[in-house]
Design goal:
By secondary structure, the protein is α+β, with helices and mostly antiparallel strands. The chain has 5 helices and 12 strands. It binds N-((E,2S,3R)-1,3-dihydroxyoctadec-4-EN-2-yl)stearamide.
Length: 258
């Protein structure tokens, strides 16, 4: 009993530890800032090809193979009304709601809580015929980016979630799956549009959030290029549409969380 209580106290205390003391921290810090810069680069210049478009949502990819495996980098942009960057980022990061919007998942385990903003996930993804089932083990970090030049026309705030494959001692390593290697970032910026007069209250009708989603997923083992590119083309638009609709509906009736 005493042991259990001590364990419980330890688990309760764990999320309060600052992530900065964790050995993964330098990597998390570096990748998060790199990915932010990468997400903020435009898609002009001819390397990105548009493959899906619906309303404000535009998805681009670059055909790329590594050791004979398709790893096509993806960059998607979208704009949605009625929810903030913080609300979007929170729902993308939180394990509590993942099954509400990510339909590519069969199982999800929180392997570790490094801090209140960083979690290590193990996810089992749905199998795609005729290839082996995939899983992913990655850290996921969420943070608010302080404004660099708080000026007119600039974003009200910016949030980022960054996911990257890693290793963990609690990895069951049962070898039943092929492990993918992923780097994903989800960047959101809130704009107050239309703007409000001084002293006037901001409502959900004044919220416009611009989203950029970037990913590079190495399938980790054999998968026919044609199947993979077909899954890619179908699943990414489905994900971003479903996710943004989900957050919009969920937040509609709640007070705005900046
Ligand atoms: O970013 C997303 N979700 C996050 C939280 O879950 C996180 C997860 C990323 C998962 C990356 C993909 C893992 C492999 C998936 C296998 C295929 C499942 C398809 C299911 C179809 C019924 O960052 C949102 C993720 C949206 C997922 C879109 C699917 C991406 C496919 C990309 C190619 C995957 C290569 C390996 C698959 C081999 C099978 C042909």
């Amino acid at each position: 009993e005493e042991f259990r209580e001590r364990l419980r106290q330890k688990q309760l205390a764990a999320p309060r530890k600052p992530a900065a003391t964790h050995p993964l921290w330098p990597q998390i810090e570096k990748l998060t800032m790199e990915q932010l810069g990468y997400a903020q680069q435009g898609v002009e210049g001819g390397v990105w090809q548009l493959f899906a478009e619906e309303g404000e949502m535009k998805m681009y990819r670059r055909e790329l193979e590594e050791d004979g495996l398709v790893v096509d980098p993806l960059k998607a942009v979208h704009q949605v009304r009625g929810a903030t960057a913080h609300e979007m980022a929170h729902h993308f990061w939180s394990p509590d709601v993942r099954f509400e919007w990510d339909t590519s998942i069969e199982q999800m385990t929180v392997l570790d809580r490094i801090s209140s903003d960083t979690i290590i996930f193990l996810q089992l993804h749905k199998r795609v015929w005729p290839t082996a089932q995939r899983d992913a083990l990655f850290w996921s970090h969420v943070r608010k980016i302080p404004p660099s030049h708080p000026a007119n026309g600039e974003a009200y705030d910016t949030w980022i979630v960054c996911n990257q494959s890693t290793e963990h001692p609690d990895d069951p390593k049962d070898g039943k799956c092929v492990r993918v290697d992923l780097t994903v970032c989800f960047v959101c910026q809130t704009f107050i549009d239309p703007p409000v007069q001084e002293g006037e209250e901001i409502t959900r009708d004044n919220l416009l959030t611009k989203i950029t989603y970037c990913s590079v997923v190495n399938p980790g083992g054999w998968a026919p290029a044609s199947v993979l590119r077909a899954v890619y083309k179908r699943e990414y638009p489905k994900f971003l549409k479903r996710f943004t609709q989900y957050v919009g509906e969920k937040c509609e009736s709640q007070p705005i969380a900046f």
